[in-house]
Design goal:
Its main location: cytoplasm. Its EC number is 2.3.1.87. It catalyses: a 2-arylethylamine + acetyl-CoA = an N-acetyl-2-arylethylamine + CoA + H(+). By secondary structure, the protein is an alpha+beta fold. It has a single domain, classed as Aminopeptidase, CATH 3.40.630. The protein is about 25% helix and about 20% strand. It contains five helices and seven strands; from the N terminus they run βααβββαβαββα. Strands 1-2-3-4-5-7-6 form a seven-stranded mixed beta sheet, with helices on both faces. β2 and β3 form a beta hairpin. α1 packs across α2. The radius of gyration is 18 Å and the shape is globular. The relative contact order is 0.14. The N terminus and C terminus are likely disordered.
Length: about 200
């Protein structure tokens, strides 16, 4: 059994019954809504959403296309995409980190022995923003991390205006982040991840 097949909240979620043809027979359709880990084949779709979401705000993207492919090859299990009828509408990409706080190296490295999940980017397609999808996806991602034995906490860095959003998701500020990108300064935030044994007893993982 794969790790993902044991996680009920990552199995495809069908939000409406299959459509029927005029003759009453069901026809095959894509799931109305599905959550799954991303693969390198999703990299272009990921980058298109990210580029539109970030370029207009900060002038740059957290991850460029080659970096997206890099992480989706190294640690696809630390990503999560939300698909509606087969189309990617929101995603998170993470990697493992092995130090207490983030440093410049955390932007490009995946430390396989680390116990902190560095969340590089969360982005939602422009056509479905202001619908709460970012919060829902983050909640599902944090639930998923609780079933990964290595994960003990989640780290991210964000601009100050996003701090209230991540606080609502359960993150707490750790103070100014030592990572800088151009003229941008960031706040580092943390979310504790419960132990694997606890979740196996309490959530069926």
């Amino acid at each position: 059994m794969s790790a993902l097949s044991a996680l009920p909240f990552l199995k495809p979620i069908h939000l409406r019954p299959p459509r029927s043809s005029p003759g009453g027979q069901r026809r095959h359709t894509l799931p109305a809504s599905e959550f799954r880990c991303l693969s390198p084949e999703d990299a272009v779709s990921v980058f298109e959403i990210e580029r539109e979401a970030f370029i207009s705000v900060s002038g740059d993207c957290p991850l460029h296309l080659d970096e997206i492919r890099h992480f989706l090859n190294l640690c696809p299990e630390l990503s999560l995409g939300w698909f509606e009828e087969g189309r990617l509408v929101a995603f998170i990409i993470g990697s493992l980190w092995d130090q207490e706080r983030l440093s410049q190296a955390a932007l490009t490295l995946h430390k396989a022995q680390g116990s902190a999940v560095h969340i590089h980017v969360l982005a939602v397609h422009r056509t479905v923003r202001q619908q709460g999808k970012g919060s829902i996806l983050m909640w599902r991602y944090l639930q998923y991390l609780r079933c990964l034995p290595a994960a003990r906490r989640a780290l991210l860095m964000c601009e100050p205006f996003l701090v209230p959003f991540y606080q609502k998701c359960g993150f707490e500020p750790l103070g100014p982040c030592q990572v800088t990108v151009g003229d941008l300064a960031f706040v580092e935030m943390q979310h504790a991840v419960r132990g694997h044994a606890f979740m196996r007893r309490n959530s069926g993982c």
